[in-house]
Amino acid sequence: MNFSAVGLNKNIQKAIADLGFETLTPIQKEAIPHLMEHKTDLVALAQTGTGKTAAFGLPILHKIDVKRKFPQAIILCPTRELCLQISKDMQSYSKYIKSLKITPVYGGANILTQIKLVKTGTQIIVGTPGRVIDLINRKALRLQDIEFVILDEADEMLNMGFKEDLDKILEETPEDKQTLLFSATMPKEVLKISKNYMFNSKTIEVASRNEGTKNVDHHYYMVNARDKYKALRRICDINPNIYAIVFCRTRRETADVADKLMQDGYNSDAIHGELSQSQRTHVMNKFRQKKIQLLVATDVAARGIDIENLTHVINYNLPDDNEVYVHRSGRTGRAGNKGVSIIISHSRDGKKLKDIQRMIKRDLILKKVPNGDEICQIQLMRLVDKVATTKINQKIENYFPSIEEKLAHLDKNNLIKHFLSTEFNRLFSFYSNAIDLNVSASKKNRIEKSKKQKREKIGHAEQGHTRFFINLGKEKGLKTHNLIGLINEYTKNRNIPIGKIDIMKRFSFFEVPSDYANDILTQLSHANWNGNKVNTEISQVPGSKSSNDSKNRKERGYGRHRKLSGGRKRENNRSLKTEKSNLNKRGSTKKKNKTSSNNRGFEGFSFKERFNAVGKINRKR
């Protein structure tokens, strides 16, 4: 179906013709005719990079009344980058519509400038929830006449703790508005949105849920965790023309990986939540102009990054939610181009790899990390190709006689060798004794390495961080993004850098910089999540005994005791009842008194230690 057949006005058709749009993508083919003819709410599910912005943007532009100088449509999205990208796309679709104004509003920019733009009579607002709330509170933005509300990447807005902001924004809008929800994945959170905020909605699903794009090949490399960066370097070196996003889990890791790449001579930079808006814009402009080959990013910071012709997406770490992998891999292989999604994995990722393979319905192909000889050959041939295709500057003729005289003692073969060695020697010396980074994925290796890594990581917080226990786990449906959203929502601070997160069966652990420890304890003390009262405590390092713990043990004797140690929560009620029962079975009061006396000598020891010691004494008698 062509755009000329869906009934869009001539100004819009002229603009999209300038952009080279001719036929509708599957999501556009389903959504645009429906939105042109109906006012019912809509939930649309489509893969990343399939033209969702045009699917909701073109019908809205067609219906906007430019004579009315107030907001008629508001598009909510989770990040500044996505806000700016949507605004840019909408402006390109509407460049021939006179008197139409589209205003992006987002944090990190001067709010007074944005207030002036809103008050000049804008018809379409594109914004992040936090800045929209700020404008509402300042009475600079009124939503009483809104006709269209679009929630783009709504699942991410909930994950980032925007639930209260969304509630407040939607309360400001009229009941008879049309609500549109567009998303690449359909987790439970998105279903909740459709139930809470939408009425009699139509659902459009143009692809299997959470299924990856067909134009992307999925590869994974199996290495030791300590060798991940070395593997990343080799992957980049074996693909000299790589143009990729490297995804990391935390801001700190993002900055560390980008710094290492830059120090090692790669054209790279990082984008994460701690950058100012001007810094982010500068980095993104360099990446779009291909002055940067490798952009290292967190998932949240990468939302809204729309870059054409990416060759690779590299998962330096796998995301906690498999649906996020679909978002990541969907950034390459767009507009009919081929792309590669790479996972740098280690032995503990085996189950997760199988889950991802099952979800995307594509094979994950195991690749071998290239050795030094393979990389040197690829890089050498790249240099040869570069020399062969370099345009000759005719001015070099002026210097050629003296150059020819200098090189007269070299024959053709030696001249080529000397010339290529000027570039090749550095690379060859680096990879001459390079070790094999590949790891066998056998069951035995996986189990042994998993146990070793668990022993190394249990219970110890990163330096400068505090480790917290929280009484929510997998049984309650808690996932990493839920925990991050909970912290953001109750602390009212989305800039807390959350470190390591361990989701257990009945409880979880997380780390934050110690400067925020009091905020966590104070703000989460009255928190509630999905009907569950939240209990948050500072976790004790394994083997440590605080003075308060020792005092409490002496006061309680055999009373109930819970100790947080090594990532585990132990409850001794059953064991203590057994101990009391065994004591009651002893034949006389005298024996009981002796046993009691013996027990008092073991105060401060664990129950198991006390029980074993008493048993030895009794056997000697």
Summarize this structure as a short list of keywords or feature phrases.
globular; 621 residues; seven-stranded parallel beta sheet; 25 helices
Protein described:
It is a single chain. The chain has 621 residues and is of the alpha/beta class. It is 44% helix and 15% strand. It contains 25 helices and 22 strands. The chain has a 7-stranded parallel sheet, with helices on both faces. The protein has a 7-stranded parallel sheet with strand order 10-11-9-12-13-8-14, sandwiched between helices. A 4-stranded antiparallel sheet has the order 16-17-15-20, covered by helices on one side. Strand 16 (501-503) and strand 17 (508-513) form a beta hairpin. The N and C termini lie far apart (94 Å). The model is unreliable at 546-580 and 585-600 (pLDDT under 50).
Query: How large is the count of helical segments?
Result: 25
Low-confidence stretches: 546-580, 585-600
* Rg result: 31 Å
* Helical fraction: 40-55%
By secondary-structure content and strand pairing, the structural class works out as: alpha/beta
Spatial separation of the terminal alpha carbons: 94 Å
Quaternary: single chain
Average pLDDT figure: 81
Question: Spatial order of the strands in the main sheet?
Answer: 3-4-2-5-6-1-7
Q: What proportion strand?
A: 15-25%
